[in-house]
Amino acid sequence: MSAIILAADHRARGIMTVERYDDYLAALRAALPCCDGLMATVKPLADLAPELRPDQTTWLSLNRTGLAGSAFELDDRLVATCAHAAAAGCTGVKHMTRIDRDDPVTAAALELLGRVLEEARVLGLDVMVEPLAWRAGAVDRATDAVVEAAVIAHDMGAPLLKVPVPAAPPGTERVDAVQRVVASVGVPVLFLGGPRGDRDSLLREIADAVAGGAAGMAIGRSVYQDPCPGEVAGLVRALFDGRPIDEVLTKAASLR
């Protein structure tokens, strides 16, 4: 598996990435030709799904009640269902589970994950699970934490994982950290792109993920918030097509 999934479910969690909806859709449309699928909440997925190629996958994002920065951020309940995804003809569903050992709400979150996995299995849907270690109100990207969260979701039955690239120094150490995450489970692992930053840092991070055995990337803000979403998506595609990082960085410089 080598997949690039465009993630477009941030706004429903109160992360105001692109305010004007028409601009938001335009940015997603520009990036989609270089992607293998789209993961989004109900409205953007419904608006864009008819435009996708037959070989592109669709993933409905299920739980978004944990608004970013809110007092109830970890209380992340369903806003859509597996049945909705099945009726809409989606490939699968995406479910985020944040694991905070200091917050009792985590027990209910794990129970909800188990229920989603079972409902999806019955309906014949794939499930992309995003397990995140949560510490002091933020994602813990330490390698140990990424591995622990991945293992918990995997052993509950997650058939596909979406996790952060571990916060290790770029190059060999980050490649080794990615390899450790991938080796801790027996299913494909996608790595997420995170907030928009500079292109070179993003591309180097993706190159390390590819070298470490990533099955793909689930990227959103770092692509569709760029002034040229199609260009960034094309650069990411080049890395997964086997182009060397130096060649891709040179191409990126020529596009500025």
Produce the secondary structure layout:
Blueprint: E1 3-8, H1 21-31, E2 37-40, H2 42-48, E3 57-61, H3 82-87, E4 92-99, H4 105-123, E5 126-135, E6 138-139, H5 143-155, E7 160-164, H6 172-183, E8 189-192, H7 199-211, E9 216-219, H8 221-224, H9 229-240, H10 245-255
Parallel strand pairs: 1-2, 1-9, 2-3, 3-4, 4-5, 5-7, 7-8, 8-9
Antiparallel strand pairs: 5-6
Describe the structure.
The chain is α/β, with parallel strands linked by helices and 256 residues long. Helix 2 links the parallel strand 2 and strand 3. It starts with a strand and ends with a helix. Helix 5 (143-155) packs parallel to helix 6 (172-183) and helix 7 (199-211) runs antiparallel to helix 10 (245-255). The protein has 10 helices and 9 strands. The chain is globular, with a radius of gyration of 17 Å. The chain has an 8-stranded parallel beta barrel with strand order 1-2-3-4-5-7-8-9, surrounded by 5 helices.
Descriptive key words:
alpha/beta
